[in-house]
Amino acid sequence: MGILEVQNVNKRFGGLQALNNVNLSVEQGSVHALIGPNGAGKSTFLNCLIGKLKPDTGSVMFDGKPVLGKKPHEINQLGVSRVFQTPEIFTDLTVFENVMIPCFAHRDGAFKVNAFARVLRDKEIRQQAEHMLEDMGMKDKMSVHAGSLSRGDKRRLEMAMCLVQEPKLLLLDEPTAGMARADTNNTIDLLKHIGESRNITKVIIEHDMHVVFSLATTISVLAQGAIIAEGLPDEIKGHPKVREAYLGEAEV
Amino acid sequence: MNLMKDRLLLIIFAAVVLAAPLIFAPTGAAYPDLLQRFAIYGIFAIGFNILFGLTGYLSFGHAAFLGVGSYSAVWMFKLLSMNIVPALLLSIVIAGAFSLLIGYVSLRRSGIYFSILTLALAQMSYNLAYSVLTPLTNGETGLQLRLDDPRVLDAAGDAGSLPSTNFFGLEMKEVFWNPTIFGYDLQFNWGYYVCAILLIASFWISIRIFRSPFGLMLRAVKTNQTRLNYTGINSRPYTLAAFVISGMFAGLAGGLLASMDPLAGAERMQWTVGGEVVLMVVLGGMGTLIGPILGAVFIKYFENIFSKINDGVLHGWFAIMPEWAENAMVLIISPFVGKGWHLTLGALFMLVVIFLPGGLVDGAKRIGRVVTGANRRAAKVGIE
Amino acid sequence: MDAILLQILNGIDKGSAYALIALGLTLIFGTLGVVNFAHGALFMIGAFVAVTVGKVLEISKITLDPEKTDFLGNPAKIKTPYITEWFGDFGFWLIEWSVLVSVIVAIPIMILIGVIMERGLIKHFYNRPHADQILVTFGLAIVLQEVIKAVYGANPIPQSAPDLLKGSVDFGVMIGMAENSVIYPLWRLVYFCFSVLIIGGVFAFLRFTTFGMVVRAGMADRETVGLLGINIDKRFTIMFGVAAAVAGLAGVMYTPINPPNYHMGMDFLVLSFVVVVVGGMGSLPGAVAAGFLLGILESFASMPLIKDAIAAVGLPSIDQIIIYLIAVIVLLVRPRGLMGKAGMMEE
User: Taking CA atoms, which of A108, A247, B269, C146 is between 20 and 30 Å from B315?
Assistant: First the structure.
């Protein structure tokens, strides 16, 4: 039994069958990549996992608990964090504050009236946030407004915000899209490093095969809303159906 | 360190507020009635800023809570006692309960829909107070004290005259010290000092909320509510809490208005009154600590000054000019002063929204930067 | 039966005004995505265009008539409007029908005001938060209202309808009911017909002209239309002008019903928002339907029969708040409104 069990998930937008009977089982501690051509339904699938969309049928179990129908914050409180395709951060707040918010959410839950506590007096939260930023190599940018960060730094910040919560499952939606080669490699190193030090299960959507084959322990291929192949990276590389779906698109 | 800065800010603020009858003397605004209005609308604006400044939810309905606060206070004066303490407590409680109801309904939507919902609810409350709930509000005439009110806690006072509001015997209207300092005839009265203490307390609460994790979450709601939800925070109760807190501040302000002058009318609930507090907060600087109070003082001060300027005063100003120029100047300026104060205010407000979204506080900072920047450059030149 | 008919008719004239203002509001929201708090002010400006035209037409030459004297024994002053001196009977006719003259004058003026507003102010707020758009248009509404107050004073200025259209019609007889059962002021009937004409005109313009088709396409998907190389911004600006004209004309024609005053815009603004929301933000038919519906409902709620019935079950009278109550219920139960697009504001 994996940490994430997806069974028979269907989602229809008008006449378009976006997800067609998707089954997926993600093992604890694995890095499970989800690849597929554009419009295959990868993002729709992720959105179903975090409560942004509700599938028409099917079930999603995380850590033995049903996820469907739960609100985004409830799913997060179960231990699922997500990195978005375009970084979702608090642009008006400082980098430090950005990282402290998930710390509070992790410790104090979804709602707590602590109107008379002082953020800066909370040693535990400060230390957590500082450590995380140090790990990310962003400690020098602590008091910078997040909106003025470079694109790469915004991604790293978002990653830090997710990781500081010590999630059981981290969902990554194209974490290297639009990055230069060097930045991509940095991100790969970072994700590997995270995988080693913390036992976080990851589901990653990616177009860049270099990233996929550097990280993934298991790969599922999604095409036209259905899973057409699943296996170890080496198996997927030579899979005829995958070649067919990807023809000319990937550098497999 | 931030903490020290806040403490210093609070101390300076308290000192200015307590010495206001002296400080405002040269400006001609140092009479109790106006000073009280500064403080009361300051409290109103501080509360509104906690909702609008921190979360970005723009409510046009806060006049309703001001009005509810006033009605509650007057009822307390009628039924229980002329002491303002129970009156203010009831104002806060009732306004809080009412804002919980309205907030619960209107916070189900966000953005412009929230604004429109609050607008509709405020107008509904106004109509309720104006006509439907006449037994409670005395409709068009407004709620007033009467000689035959029960006032169960008060001993029977002088028959034949209405009692006045007090704080354990200290009458709000009473001027307790009337010195002449630097040639200014000063008036220190209890009413202002009650408002002043509550203003300082409100300011302190506002600082604490700004620096708390709660305040941090509210600011996060404003910048990216989606991310906040995916970070495991349920934003709805946070915004509702902010809404209720701001409603309670509005209720306190309404109660204070009634404590200074014990009557309450439906016109206090009109949405344009709620619009005025929006003007105050935006003009002063939304999301800043001191901005809302600056905005409130600024608007109430100039409202007072401007409305006194009539054509005669204007002719006096431009008397040194040739007559045709004098008349021309008066013609140009007169629509903006006197009864035209709202025109000036509207124009000023638009200029601030367009060119200075950070309000007066932001403007002061910019000027400060220009000045210090210029100084630094000047210093550099000097060294070289 | 006749009582019900009368209430419907009574609701219709207010409903027409709601529908016209809401139509413009929702048009602006649908095309430009802006919530225009100054839209009520445009309605008011329209009304004051009528006031101004009326005054201009009546500018008079004053002559003394030595044969008649007033009670002090001075020669009586006789006012002769210049326009009658110049054009004779046609001049009298113009004064008599000044409301129609105002309609003609108001169209270019209102379009111009709308275009200036959009190009001069609102254009700069497309990329700012919605709250800023609300704030700046709210500020503009205050300024416009105060300017009118400074020029025309605070008191309402009564305007009269042309003699021919004054008075009432016996609407009951027209549809075969008993005499005097349904008496209805004629001008209100005119107002209703006028608003139907305008609404029909706007819909026809959007549906049957190429210009309108592009605008509708732009409302549905602005980016794609922009990519096709069509200058959608220019068209949207013109639509803002049209929306302003619609509001202005609603104001012009409303003057004989209610004497215009400087705050009539703000009074109608809140109600028009309610109408737009109930009809569905961005939905033109929704705005029109909701306008009439709410106008009629309001009229029904103030019916003595219904008031008594409500009082009988111990509830306070709701005629003052029914519109707001409906808006709140609609926003909570069916947030996209009666005819709004699915997904609209259901966040």
Answer: C146
Strand (E) or helix (H) holding A205: strand A201-205
ipTM metric:
0.89
C-alpha to C-alpha distance for B154 and B156, rounded to whole angstroms = 6
pLDDT at position B377 is 54
Residues B53-67 have a mean pLDDT of 93
**Residue ranges per structural domain of chain B:** 2-270
Find which of B54, B57, B350, B355 to mutate to test the C interface (most C CBs within 10 Å of its CB): B350
B94 or A197, which is more confident?
B94
User: Are C328 and B124 an interchain contact pair (Cβ–Cβ within 8 Å)?
Assistant: yes
pLDDT the model gives residue A196: 66
With an 8 Å Cβ cutoff, are C324 and B120 in contact?
yes
| Paired sense of beta strands A226-231 and B188-189, if any | unpaired
CB-CB under 8 Å, B342 with C134: no
- A75: closest chain B residue by CA: B232
Q: Are B35 and B192 in contact (CB under 8 A)?
A: yes
Residues of chain B with Cβ-Cβ distance to C331 below 8 Å are 108-109, 113, 116-117
Buried b (16+ CB within 10 A) or exposed e, C310-347: eeeeeeebbbbbbbbebbbebbeeebbbbbbbeeebee
Residue C102 has a CB neighbour count (10 Å cut-off) of 29
Q: Which residue of C has its CA nearest to B282?
A: C135
pLDDT at residue B157, as a whole number: 58
Residues 240-259 of B with CB under 8 A from A: 241, 245
List the single residue in B with minimal CA-CA distance to C337: B113
Q: Cβ of B224 and A89 within 8 Å?
A: yes
Predicted model pTM: 0.89
Q: What is the pLDDT of residue C315?
A: 65
- How many angstroms away from the CA of B343 is the closest CA of chain C? 5
- Residue C227, CB-side half-sphere exposure with 13 Å CA sphere: 4
Which of A89-98, A185-194, B336-345, C163-172 has the lowest average pLDDT?
Answer: C163-172
Q: Are A35 and A12 in contact (CB under 8 A)?
A: no
Stretch 153-192 of chain A: residues touching chain B, C-beta under 8 Å: 161, 165
- Please give the Cα distance from A157 to A88 (Å, whole number): 10
- Banded pLDDT at C244 (limits 50, 70, 90): very high
Q: Please list the ranges in chain A whose pLDDT falls under 50.
A: 250-252
Check CB contact under 8 Å for A90 and B223: yes
Give me the residue from A105, A120, A121 closest to B231, CB to CB.
A105
Average pLDDT over residues B250-266: 93
pLDDT average, residue stretch B144-154: 82
Q: Which residues of C touch B339 (CB under 8 A)?
A: 149, 154
pLDDT on residue A195: 62
E-strand spans in chain C? Answer: 60-69, 75-81, 168-170, 183-185
Chain B residues near residue C149 by CB distance under 8 angstroms = 339-340, 343
- Do B213 and A122 lie within an 8 Å CB cutoff? yes
Which CATH number fits the domain A1-79+167-252, given the four candidates 3.30.710.10, 3.40.50.300, 3.40.30.10, 3.40.50.10610?
3.40.50.300
Per domain, the residue ranges of chain A are 1-79+167-252, 90-151+159-166
Least confident segment among B124-128, B215-219, C110-114: B124-128
Residue A35 DSSP one-character state: E
